[in-house]
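Something for you to look into today, if you have time. I want to see for myself how the chain folds. Leave the record below and I will have a look.
***
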Amino acid sequence: MELRTEGLIAGYSGRTVVNGVDVTVPSGRVVAIVGPNGCGKSTLLRAMARLHAPEAGRVLVGGEDVWRMRQREAAHRIALLPQSPQAPEAVTVAGLARYGRHPHQGLFRQWSRADELAVERALSATGTTGLAERRLDELSGGQRQRCWLAMALAQETPVLLLDEPTSALDIGHAVEVLDLVREIAADGRTVVMVVHDLAAAARYADSLVAMRDGRVVACGAPRDTIDASLVRELYGVDAEVLTAPSDGSPVVVPVARTTAAATAPAPR
């Protein structure tokens, strides 16, 4: 299902953080949002997920504005895995996945076999079936991240938003999670993820959205978008952009901070 934003503006206490963003994510594709800290990436995801109300613009899923839907209806369309999710104390992996079925419950709609099957499919897709009865706090970081993805998948939405799904993971677990993201998209779901690693974004995303100061400064296929000038514009870093021999994706090798960046005062 296609996800699209049109002229999206959002912020906090009168301060604009997302400024006129237009993004289109076709069904079954992976889009990576990149940019420096504080550029509006997470706020954009929260506005897409109907968790932070925009000041202007629209978020469309399948051509319908999610901010005109009831919250439960929107939760049937979009699932968000935030940057630092918090789990109830001593929850098991299966128990966590069952939380993903909450939007499907109601006064006249209690737990059913369909819910159980959705949880089983989510655990199987993320390779966490064998961990189902383990407590989440007993697992490694990579295992926990796959369990959180299982919860999001159990929600069975056509659109999945991931805010830094590989943060704090070592390279092995990060690759494991990103491989899973590709499998999710191959299954027909639309995925938008915020990532900091440009090499990972280039290799795993179909398209890249680069943001700075709340605006989109570049958008397109990673190999057509990532170059030294973009890295300098986003991060104030001089870099060499090489080509990976295996698949031709760009690899960014930082060289030095630019003079302007090195002398600029630290952000408050």
